[in-house]
Design a protein that fits this description.
The protein is an alpha+beta fold. Strands 1, 2, 3, 4, 5, 6, 7, 8, 9 and 10 form a ten-stranded antiparallel beta sheet that branches.
């Protein structure tokens, strides 16, 4: 049996473990799920729309992409790719979606070739901006697929240069992307049904279960019948004694 002192020690140990878990460098970005494989990302979401950047657009401060995405920040669409640059640590390139989404992903190029790129948004139900750093997931020059699935719906993204930058003298991070996909829902998981017990109030068709009845065929004698059997037994015994005394 635990003493009160032992219980206090266990409580303090649990509290210390909780504080240590909270202080292990968990960042808001870890509230979302980051993918570096497009197939894995696609299996997690549904309602996917993909922007292939098939329509060229000249460099502009404001672009409206074919799928209704509004881009703010100097950028262009050329040879089937989206081109832009984060000019400084105080500026960003903004993406605003026509409706709420739960995830996005794209094939990125050169996201860590100079200052390093980040992407931020309200990806979690806890108020505050969550930031994902590309250099933590993509190797070399930062080329490859990167996708995000958020805990709550959002409608905008912000691409900016990493702070502090990868290169001390870096003033920007030019990058490209293609096959920019965004998803409106999470993928539906297979429903797991368990068999219903006999005591359930409804059956599989949603109809009331019939009352349980005893289907056994054995009959129980009524009290009057039992009394009659006893009387016959007594009379039989008396008659047998009279025969033996003769």
């Amino acid at each position: 049996m635990f003493t009160s002192t032992a219980m206090k020690t266990l409580s303090m140990t649990a509290a210390s473990a909780t504080l240590m878990a909270l202080g292990t460098g968990v960042t808001p970005a870890e509230a979302v799920t980051v993918f570096t494989d497009r197939t894995a990302w696609q299996e997690t979401v549904s309602g996917i729309t993909t922007e292939t950047f098939s329509t060229p657009q000249s460099s502009s401060q404001n672009l409206l992409l074919e799928n209704g995405i509004q881009v703010t920040g100097v950028s262009s669409v050329e040879t089937g790719q989206f081109y832009t640059s984060t000019p400084s640590r105080s500026e960003s390139v903004e993406f605003e979606f026509p409706s709420q989404i739960l995830g996005f992903g794209a094939d990125f190029s050169s996201t860590t070739s100079n200052g390093g790129l980040t992407v931020s948004g309200l990806f979690d139900e806890i108020p505050g901006v969550d930031t994902v750093v590309f250099s933590e997931y993509l190797q070399g020059q930062g080329t490859g697929f990167l996708g995000i699935v958020a805990d709550t719906a959002f409608n905008s993204l912000s691409f900016a240069m990493q702070s502090p930058p990868l290169a001390i003298s870096a003033a920007n991070e030019a990058f490209q992307m293609d096959n920019f996909s965004f998803a409106s829902n999470l993928a539906e998981s297979d429903a797991v049904s368990s068999p219903e017990s006999p005591t359930d109030s409804e059956n599989n068709r949603g109809e009331p279960m019939p009352p349980l009845t005893d289907t056994r065929s054995e009959s129980v004698p009524e009290p009057a019948s039992v009394l009659g059997l006893l009387m016959m037994a007594v009379l039989g015994t008396t008659s047998l004694r009279k025969r033996q005394t003769r």
